[in-house]
Amino acid sequence: MMRALLALLLTLAGMARAELPVRPARVVRVLRHDPGAFTEGLFWLNGRFYESTGEPGRSSIRVTDPATGRVLRKVDIPPPTFGEGIVAWKDEIVSLTWRDGRGWRWRLADFKRLSEWRYPGEGWALTSDGRSLIMSDGTPELRFLDPVTLRERRRLTVTAEGRPLPMLNELEWVQGEILANVWMTDRIARIDPDTGRVVGWIDVSALHDRVGRDNNDAVPNGIAWDAKGRHLYVTGKDWPKLFEIAAPKSR
């Protein structure tokens, strides 16, 4: 009921009208995922999934084996901090927190905390286009950050059918586009990084139904791209499954 209502509100708001193409996610294979992982960030690197989780007392950064879902390494983020998105940059991981206005750099090899950084507003998710780190904060704006200094370079306003699109959550750079979960919906937005316009949607509602999670917080969140193998993966908060889906065709 809640998802149906949200979908209706989304449509009425003009964010997902028929003018934009909507492609249902096509499942290629299904992998295991920790059902206790409140997923906030996800990326693929060197044959492993790196994932960040949220909620005070449950927040962590971890690396997992894709074949078994087993956690290979993990660092807990102490409460009351609410962990958010992560991204790899060279030999480090950069992480966010939700409302604390601070993040950290971690050594990729062993998750040792290296330094802290500060930013205004909320932190939701991170990805990279290879030149900048791209950050979402729950608004229609994406921030482009210098990966060395973490200073803001510019902002990009995301629009769908000419209207600002808020609630941009987990991000992933895929074949020249920014893919973004839209919080509390079953839609992934495909965003043109030059204009900020949404060029299409990926509908993951069928995947949401397959995991059997009905609580309001267990929303789709988590996108990872294996550029070498051209594999696209998605999951959700507290989902017991992680899905490989067919990647959208590049424009």
* Average predicted confidence as pLDDT: 92
Strand order of the largest sheet: 1-20-19-18-17
CATH top-level class: Mainly Beta
Query: What is the number of helical segments per DSSP (H or I, 4+ residues)?
Result: 2
- Radius of gyration (Å): 17 Å
Fold topology:
Layout: H1 2-12, E1 22-24, E2 27-32, E3 39-45, E4 48-53, E5 60-64, E6 71-76, E7 83-89, E8 92-97, E9 102-107, E10 113-118, E11 125-128, E12 133-136, E13 141-145, E14 152-157, E15 159-160, E16 163-164, E17 168-174, E18 177-182, E19 187-191, E20 198-203, H2 205-211, E21 220-226, E22 231-236, E23 241-245
What does this structure look like?
The chain is mainly β and 251 residues long. The chain has one domain: Neuraminidase, CATH 2.120.10. 7% of the residues lie in helices and 49% in strands. The radius of gyration is 17 Å and the shape is globular. The termini are far apart.
Essential attributes:
mainly beta; Neuraminidase; five-stranded mixed β-sheet; four-stranded antiparallel β-sheet; 2 helices; 7% helix; globular; disordered N terminus
